[in-house]
Amino acid sequence: MEESITPIPIFSTLISPFDSSLNINGSDSNSSTRKPLSLWPGMYHSPVTIALWETRSRTFERLLDPPLDAPPQSELLTKTPSQSRMTILYNFSTDYILREQYRDPWNEVRIGKLLEDLDALAGTISVKHCSDDDSTTRPLYLVTASVDKMVLKKPISVDLDLSISGAVTWVGRSSIEIQLDVTQPPPESAEATGSVVLSATFIFVARDYKTQKAAPVNRLTPETEREKSLYEAAEARNRLRKSTIKGDKKEIENGGLNRVGALLSEGRIFCDMPALADRDSILLRETRLENSLICQPQQRNIHGRIFGGFLMHRAFELAFSTTYAFAGMMPSFLEVDHVDFLRPVDVGDFLRFKSCVLYTESESSDQPLIHVEVVAHVTRPELRSSEVSNRFYFTFTVRPEAKAKNNGVRIRKVVPATEEEARRITERMDADSLNS
């Protein structure tokens, strides 16, 4: 006779959005105005993302079922950065469960999850700035357009409290720039305020929900000296972006082809005479890794599309693995060089992430640099099509303790085998030199 086995009960770690404990507006949680669960953003996301959604539940309900026949906002408001400012706090020192959700193997914060939270906070801030507090108008559709360079100044411990604070620092006609600062006190300090360990700049663009065309956003008036300084710096970056786009073709005509040819010369030796190739170099195509997934409803945002933070998280994990396989030593994250969101990704899309090491800088033996590109493709087999949805650029080095154990291991130089690969390398080098 077989012994009966008692099933192990499994419970959701998330609270229903309809529970009265989450209804911060004090209205009846069983109200008929509550939207179906299928319309709520995906429940996959981190505790921080969920908390952000809870704090603005009334706004979410309007965004989840926008009145498309309602008129657009008729009059733009003028707001200050302080009106959009938000801060979130990770109580790592006392919340052991939260700490475990963010811990990596080195007792530091998982960077992929942090990127996800940064995108969620930036999105919340953009919604806050664009809100006109008028329930009779249709809301704007806000999407992440790009992320500028963010540099990790020091490792982020998972044992110490962490905070992220940010606000809108600049607006164009339909674009919004948000700066976020991640702060953490040093281990020996008992002070509540900490030093900035990472800064990030997100650019969102506004679209009309009905027409899908660019829509104007509320104006911004900086008040303090720091806010004015951030506004001017953002204005300068915007001008630089525009001039860089215009100058790309000119650069290729005025010597860019010579640089491409120089890069290709070593790659041709690998292709035509591999026995004579430099053993300290490797073809770009030999550094590639790839993974794929079907985008699930649990990964959607408030607009029903795939959450940008989730894409950044997955891209980072692949870039980390690519660096590990390439260097032969455990990587250490340094920078997100740039992220482009070229087209939205929908629930049900077949998404392929393809990564490679674009180039390395090993002149400094103390901290060799490994630059990794990850490109996300939305693939539609039934239509025999594949479109690029995102481009991510990361920079890694190797962990000091790993390097100490493998002192004789050298970081190899990456060389292209095709003209297209050589162009990608030169374009990224130029972009990195402009951002440095």
UniProtKB/TrEMBL annotation:
Keywords: Hydrolase, Repeat, Transit peptide. Signal peptide: none annotated. One of its GO terms (molecular function) is fatty acyl-CoA hydrolase activity. Residues 88-210, 285-402 form the HotDog ACOT-type domain. Coiled coil: none annotated. The keyword Disulfide bond does not apply. It comes from the Eukaryota. GO terms for biological process: acyl-CoA metabolic process. CDD domains: BFIT_BACH. Belongs to the acyl coenzyme A hydrolase family. This is Thioesterase/thiol ester dehydrase-isomerase superfamily protein. It comes from Perilla frutescens var. hirtella (Perilla citriodora).
